[in-house]
Amino acid sequence: MNETRRQPWWESGVIYQVYPRSYQDTNGDGVGDLAGIEARLGHIVSLGVDAIWLSPVYPSPMADFGYDVADYCNIDPIFGDMAAFDSLISAVHAMGLKLLLDFVPNHTSDQHLWFQESRSSRGNPKRDWYIWRDPAPEGGVPNNWISDFGGSSWEWDEGTGQYYLHAFLKEQPDLNWRNPDVQRAMMDVMRFWLDRGVDGFRIDVLWHIVKHEAFPDNPLNPEWTPDITERDRLLQVHSTDQPEAHAISAKLRELADTYGDRVLVGEIFLPNERHARWYGSPTQPQVHLPFNFQLIESPWDAEHLRGVIEGYEASLPSFGWPNWVIGSHDAPRIAARVGEPQARVAAMLLLTLRGTPTLYQGDELGIGEVFIPMEEIRDPQHFRQPTLDIGRDRSRTPMPWDHTTNAGFTTGKPWLPLNADWSSRNVAAQNNDPASMLNFYRRMLALRRASPALSTGSFSLLGGSNDVLIYLREGGGQRLAVVLNLSSHIRRFELPANNQIKAVLASTLQTEPAHGSLSPNEGLVLEIQKSG
Ligand code: GLC
Ligand code: CA
Questions:
Q1: Does the pLDDT at position 532 exceed 70?
Q2: Residue of 67, 165, 328 to test ligand 1 pocket, by largest number of atoms within 8 Å of CB
Q3: Do 438 and 402 contact (CB within 8 A), yes or no?
Q4: What does the mean pLDDT of the chain come to?
Q5: How far, in Å, CA of 213 to CA of 238, rounded?
Q6: How confident is the model at residue 5 (pLDDT cuts 50, 70, 90)?
Q7: From the CA of 416, how far away is ligand 2's center (Å)?
Q8: Which of 79, 208, 188 is nearest to 147 (CA)?
C-alpha cells in the first residue's frame, strides 16, 4: 500500500450497528427511539467504535420493521422527529463518532405516495416508477420469480389489472431503477441526508436494484431441498446482480464523493468474484465496502474459515478495502451459533482480520439464543414460512442495560421479549466485571485502535487446520500472530520458525497462556519477533 496515501476513517474504523427499535425506549411505548440512542451514546463511546449504522428510522407502516419506507425524508413518529434526529447527529459528532443511515433503494412501502400514485391508474406519471407487468399469455404471474420471503414476487392489482413486482413482501413494491426520474428522486434522498450531515449509508439489498429487462424465468436451483427457504428454489440470475446495477452503484458513489469523506456500505450477497465487482474500478469506483457476510455463512471450523479468508482476500481488487461482519438484525446471534466461549474467539477473529469490522448491538454482551413465545413473534419472514424456523426476532430483542424492570430498556412492555438471562447479562453487570464479554470487546477494540498492525497492517494466513487458525498481522514496525483455537479441546500450535513470543497482547481467557498449546476456546494475540 502506498505509504503517503491518506487513510480514510472507515478503513481503520469499526462500525457498530444499532437496531433502533431495540436500543433504548424513552417514552414507555416499548419501542426504542432516537432520544434513547442519544441517551446511550456513552455506552457506544466506551466500547471504542468509530461509527454507528442505524437501521431505518423513516416513516413506515413497519410491515418489515422500517425496511418498508413510506417517506425517505422524514422520521417515523415512533422514533421521534427531525429535531430528535438533528439532536442525535450533533451529539454523535460531538463525541467524535460518525453516523450512517440505512438507505433502502430497492423498494418502498406500498404506502409511499409514489406507489399510491403509481397504482392509481395505468396512465399515472408515476406508473413507471414501479415494475408493472401484464399477466403471462396463458394467464397468471408474469414469470416464476420468487420473493426472498417466499411466494411469488408478483402481486395482482385489481384496480389496474396488472401485477407489480416485490422482491420482499407485497407491502414492499420494487422501484424501477431503469427510470431516470426514480434515479433522480433517490439521489435527492441521499443528498437530503448528506446535507444534514450523515457520514454515509448502508445500502439495503444493493444487488437487487435492477432486473433483467426481459424478465425471463429464473433457472431452478438443482440443490434446493424443502428444508431450505423457498427463495432458494431458483437461482436469482435474472432478478439480481444485473450489469446496469453497477452503473447505478457508480453514480451513487460519485454523488457521495462530492461530499468528501463519506462512506457507502453495500448489502450484497454474492460469490467472491461477482461480489468484488461492486468495488468498481479505480477510475469508476462503486461502494467503498461491499458487505462481506462470509463469517456468518461459513461453518465454524478452522478449515472452512481458512478457505473463506483466503478466498475473500484473493478476490479483492488491489484498491479494494476488505470488511467483515459477524452478526446483524437478519442473522442468528453468533453466541447462539457457536456458544459463548467460542463467541469470544469469533470476536477476536472479527477484530483482528484485515478490514473494517461491523459489530451488531448486543453481541458485545454475548447475548445468545432467545426464546420467542409463539404469540410474541413479530418478524414477517417467520410468518411467510413458519415451518423453517428462520424468524429474525431472536436477534432483535431489546438491549439489556441493567437489572431494573425490563432491563432498563423501557418502562412499558418491550415490543419483543428480553434475553432470558437479562438480569445478569446486561451492560451494568458487565461493566463491573473485568472478565465480561463487554470488557473483552473493549480491550480488543482498544488494542486494535492502538495497533497499526491490526488496524491497517498486512495480513498473511499461516494455517487453518486441526482446529487452529493462525495468521500474521504486520505494520508500523509491529509483528503480531493471532492464534485461535476453534474447538473446546486443548490444541497445539507452532509459530513460524525462528519466531518467539515477545508479549501476549490479548487473550480470550483470564488465564496465563501455556507454551505452544492453546486451552479450549483460547484465542491469543501475540507480539512476536525473530530470534537471534
Ligand atoms: C435487507 C434487510 C432486511 C430486510 C430486507 C428487505 O436484507 O437487512 O432486514 O428485510 O433487506 O428490505
Ligand atoms: Ca419509544
A1: no
A2: 67
A3: no
A4: 97
A5: 9
A6: low
A7: 13
A8: 208
Q: Tell me phi and psi for residue 390, to 5 degrees.
A: -115, 20
In the block, residue with C-alpha cell 530470534: 531
Helix 243-257 to helix 180-195 angle (10° resolution) is 30
| Residue 328 alpha carbon, nearest atom of ligand 1 | 8
Rounded percentage of the chain residues whose pLDDT exceeds 70? 99
Residue type, 119: R
Q: Where are the alpha helices (DSSP H) in 143-229?
A: 180-195
Closest-CA residue to 13 (of 448, 385, 443) = 448
Residue 267 annotated to the active site: yes
Does the active-site annotation cover 313? Answer: no
For cell 421479549, name the residue: 417
Residue with cell 460518525: 98
What residues have CB less than 8 Å from 82, skipping those under 6 apart? 74, 75
The rounded distance, in Å, linking the Cα atoms of 313 and 322 is 8
Q: What is the pTM of this model?
A: 0.98
> Quick one: cell of 434?
473485568
Q: How far is the CA of 64 from the centre of ligand 1 (A)?
A: 8
C-alpha distances in angstroms, 392 versus 378, 395, 466? 9, 6, 33
Give the angle 332-335-340 at the CA atoms, nearest 5°. Answer: 170
CA of 424 to the centre of ligand 1 (A): 31
Among candidates 237, 188, 178, which has minimal Cα distance to 209? 178
How far lies 326's CA from each of 336, 364, 514, in Å? Answer: 12, 11, 28
467-488: pLDDT as tens digits: 999 999 999 999 999 999 999 9
Please tell me the residue having the least CA distance from ligand 1 atom 3: 330
Candidates 32, 104, 45; CA nearest to 71 is 104
- Residues 358 and 368: their CA atoms lie apart, in Å, by 18
Closest by CA position to 36, among listed 19, 24, 27, 44: 24
Please write the tens of the pLDDT for every residue from 354-386.
999 999 999 999 999 999 999 999 999 999 999
Cβ atoms of 249 and 280 closer than 8 Å:
yes
6 DSSP assignment: P
